[in-house]
Specification:
The complex is a heterodimer.
Chain A: H1 6-16, E1 19-23, H2 33-44, E2 50-53, H3 58-68, E3 75-78, E4 81-84, H4 86-95, H5 97-102
Parallel strand pairs in A: 1-2
Antiparallel strand pairs in A: 1-3, 3-4
Helix pairs in contact in A: 1-3, 2-4
Chain B: H1 4-14, E1 19-24, E2 31-38, H2 46-57, E3 67-74
Parallel strand pairs in B: 2-3
Antiparallel strand pairs in B: 1-2
The chains are: A alpha+beta, B alpha+beta.
Chain lengths: 128, 75
């Protein structure tokens, strides 16, 4: 059995995690404002999510963007589908659509600032 | 390095009927915010709308254009 390609590893990470955020840095130590705001929005809803830091290996971003046809980071996937980047995640959180998608009640309009507490579930760079 | 005016022109030329307002969010000519309206967005999901705008710049996104934050709506 040959070693799974990086693209295969990314696909399985997306399939195996109901909510997964590909970001710069980690939820505890985000390396860009857009990644921080997206992770913070998920944390403010107390939604468990997996996170993958794309910075250690530039190929992750290339393979991911080839798969998702989305050029920027962060990228949020829910139930195997690309939800979008920071703009869309924040817009959906403000409208309540994200809460519906994630099955979270009552957190409508909650958009995080950067200081939220850490995510309960983290798969630190599971593709390492 | 790209300017907000250049980005606006390229968006409006590439997407039918588009009206774009582009600002440089950091003053370093590589982080931009664009608000774009166009009839071409009608019936499209947010992701599809944003893809139309990102596709205008191809692999400049993440390169010369380090960040392009978007707000899109059908018009």
């Amino acid at each position: 059995m040959s070693q799974p390609t990086l693209s295969d590893q990314i696909k399985s990470a997306i399939e195996q995690n109901e909510v997964i955020l590909f970001m710069k840095g980690t939820p505890d130590a985000p390396a860009c404002g857009f990644s921080a705001r997206t992770a913070g929005t998920l944390e403010s809803m107390k939604v468990p999510f997996a996170s993958v830091d794309i910075l250690p290996d530039p190929r992750i971003r290339q393979e991911l963007s080839a798969l998702s046809n989305w050029p920027t980071i962060p990228q949020l996937f829910v139930k195997g589908e690309l939800v979008g980047g920071c703009d869309i995640v924040v817009e959906m959180a403000e409208s309540g659509e994200l809460q519906t998608l994630l099955g979270v009640e009552g957190a409508e309009g909650v958009v995080a600032d950067e200081s939220s507490d850490p995510a309960p579930l983290q798969i630190e760079n599971r593709l390492g | 390095m790209p300017t907000p005016e250049e980005l606006q022109t390229r968006i409006e030329e590439a997407i039918p009927g588009a009206k774009a307002v582009v600002i440089d969010t950091t003053g370093t000519q590589d982080h931009f915010r664009a608000e774009v309206s166009s009839p071409a967005f009608t019936g499209l999901s947010r992701i599809a709308q944003h893809r139309l705008v990102y596709d205008v710049f191809g692999d400049e996104i993440g390169g010369a254009i380090h960040a392009l934050s978007l707000k899109t709506e059908p018009s």
